[in-house]
């Protein structure tokens, strides 16, 4: 595998300057996910309106380039999406957004963002929406 | 330039390890993940094949030629191990699956007689396998688990050793060499302090047994644990050394076949040492393979291996410490392990880019999550060396670190 293909400029750009970095004090859902194998962590803050649409997103990622870039890129897509859209999102969507070859051992890094988002949606459905 | 060549004939040694011929991404493999597991020489691989092709049978039970051959080879391996660590006899040597199983055996068996409020002392440097078993049994039985703290150099703090080991301490369990950092612990001193306080001393020698001569009489700990796959042996076999009178008085850990003397409906008496602790059909081929690995290590010479590993580590430390934006963790004097980070780059990415140059290292918390918390990092990159590694390989590694910095624009 060509390593430059994996660490493309846009991946490194998202890693060094993650979009939507920060937190939201009154988030509808704040969820923290950790990948115990690598120690990658992600905090995700979502403001969700009455129609179950995401209106605001902030993230606080800690980890490798792949996991941080993945969270950053995903955060850019979320505004305006409904929770039902989130529920339909798959691993393939994330990998397509990343647009780089991901080896099986790095899959967990790439998918931490999706896991965090999916679990945020679950929490919303179970405890917030009622 | 090749100082190490004067100690060991590394060029010759490398020919004994078929995997070292492999190309990784079209580059020669540089295997620096020896603390995770070592590579195996042909003699070990052949011994396993040979056992299955020529002598395969169950041990201790089968009265036929193959059964006798298998039993003899299995027990001969136990004797080799006893000799390797200068134990009194092969009765002191119990085969386990790995270090983890040996430590669980000790945690279960030694805590069975403890009372609420009794104390167990481990350290902040421990591998999860010398941490979680004690932690869980302490929880179940209301025992106090205490931790020897590390100092700024990531060595066990001398004051903290003295402060934590007291008359209330029943068991002390520490590693000989830290797998995450490479720190060499003063185990003989700790053993003395433990014994002065009437406590039992357990040593996790997983990272020491592969790299240095060991003498159980001199160390004088009550138990010493190591794992075959880190010392040229196969996976699936580990060793628990214990003092005889202690092992004799301990409850078995696993019950079943092999470990019994007589079984009646109303009760069971247990087999004698060491079989009392070896329930069920053991990993016979693996135990025999470990014996062959020990033959190999002894032929090369543990003293020479120790010197070689030490010099190579010093060489790598000197080179790596000259690379800007690299932080190295732990003391200067260390086992053959270097834990480090490249500024602004996660250890996973370091490892991934090194891999593209054929260099295999480990990245992560190295099964030492509590320690990582204490030193304040989520993960480190770790290079670890063994008898077949060379200074040229260290140079390839250093060049690959430069590539990491280039890719990330550090
Ligand atoms: C210090 C230390 N203790 C214990 C272990 C556990 O060894 P095993 O996984 O073979 O049981 C390891 C290996 O990872 C180690 O480095």
Walk me through this protein's architecture:
The complex is a heterodimer of chains A (130) and B (410). Chain A is built from 6 helices and 3 strands; from the N terminus they run ααβββαααα. In chain A, helix 2 crosses helix 3 and helix 3 crosses helix 6. Chain A starts with a helix and ends with a helix. The mean pLDDT of chain A is 94. In chain A, strand 2 and strand 3 form a beta hairpin. Chain A has 130 residues and is α+β, with helices and mostly antiparallel strands. Chain A has one domain: Sufe protein. Chain: A (Alpha-Beta Complex). Chain A is 48% helix and 19% strand. By secondary structure, chain B is of the alpha/beta class. Helices cover 41% and strands 17% of the residues of chain B. Chain B contains 15 helices and 17 strands. In chain B, the strands form 5 sheets. Chain B has a 7-stranded mixed beta sheet, with helices on both faces. In chain B, helix 9 links the parallel strand 8 and strand 9. In chain B, helix 13 packs across helix 15. The radius of gyration of chain B is 22 Å and the shape is globular. The interface between A and B is medium-sized, with 20 and 21 residues.
């Amino acid at each position: 595998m060509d390593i430059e293909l994996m660490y493309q400029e846009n991946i490194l750009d998202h890693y060094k300057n993650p979009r939507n970095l920060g937190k939201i004090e009154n988030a509808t859902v704040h969820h923290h996910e950790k990948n115990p194998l690598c120690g990658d962590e992600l905090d995700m803050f979502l403001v969700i309106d009455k129609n179950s649409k995401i209106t605001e997103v902030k993230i606080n990622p800690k980890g490798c380039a792949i996991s941080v870039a993945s969270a950053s890129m995903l955060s850019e897509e979320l505004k305006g999406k409904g929770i039902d859209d989130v529920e339909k999102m798959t691993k393939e969507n994330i990998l397509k957004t990343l647009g780089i070859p991901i080896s099986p051992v790095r899959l967990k890094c790439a998918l931490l963002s999706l896991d965090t988002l999916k679990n945020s949606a679950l929490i919303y459905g179970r405890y917030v929406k009622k | 330039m090749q100082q190490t060549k004067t100690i060991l004939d590394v060029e010759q040694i490398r020919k004994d390890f078929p995997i070292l011929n492999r190309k990784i991404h079209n580059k020669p493999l540089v295997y620096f993940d020896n603390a995770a597991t070592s590579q195996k020489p042909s003699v070990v691989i052949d011994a396993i094949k040979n056992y299955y092709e020529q002598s395969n049978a169950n041990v201790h039970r089968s009265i036929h030629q193959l059964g006798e051959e298998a039993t003899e080879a299995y027990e001969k391996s136990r004797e080799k191990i006893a000799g390797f660590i200068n134990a009194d006899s092969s009765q002191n040597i119990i085969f386990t699956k790995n270090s983890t199983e040996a430590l669980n055996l000790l945690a279960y068996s030694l805590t069975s007689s403890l009372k609420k409020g009794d104390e167990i002392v481990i350290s902040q440097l421990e591998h999860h396998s010398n941490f979680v078993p004690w932690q869980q049994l302490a929880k179940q039985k209301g025992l106090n688990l205490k931790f020897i703290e590390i100092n700024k150099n990531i060595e066990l703090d001398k004051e903290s050793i003295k402060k934590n080991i007291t008359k209330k301490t029943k068991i002390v369990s520490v590693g000989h060499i830290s797998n995450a950092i490479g720190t060499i612990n003063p185990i003989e001193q700790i053993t003395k302090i433990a014994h002065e306080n009437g406590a039992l001393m357990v040593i996790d020698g997983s990272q020491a047994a592969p790299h240095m001569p060991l003498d159980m009489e001199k160390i004088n700990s009550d138990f010493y644990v190591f794992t075959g796959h880190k010392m040229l042996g196969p996976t699936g076999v580990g060793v628990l050394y214990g003092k005889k009178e202690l092992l004799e008085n301990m409850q078995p850990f696993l019950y079943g076949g092999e470990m019994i003397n007589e079984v009646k409906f109303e009760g069971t008496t247990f087999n004698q040492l060491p079989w009392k602790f070896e329930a069920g059909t053991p990993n016979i081929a693996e135990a025999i393979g470990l014996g062959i690995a020990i033959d190999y290590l002894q032929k090369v010479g543990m003293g020479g291996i120790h010197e070689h590993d030490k010099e190579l580590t010093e060489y790598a430390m000197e080179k790596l410490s000259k690379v800007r934006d690299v932080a190295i963790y732990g003391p200067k004097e260390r086992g053959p392990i270097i834990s480090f980070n490249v500024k602004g780059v996660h250890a996973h990415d370091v490892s991934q880019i090194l891999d593209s140059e054929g260099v295999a290292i480990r990245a992560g918390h190295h099964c030492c999550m509590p320690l990582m918390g204490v030193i304040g990092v989520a993960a480190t990159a770790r290079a670890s060396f063994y008898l077949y590694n060379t200074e040229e390989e260290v140079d390839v590694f250093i060049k690959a670190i430069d590539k990491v910095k280039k890719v990330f624009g550090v």
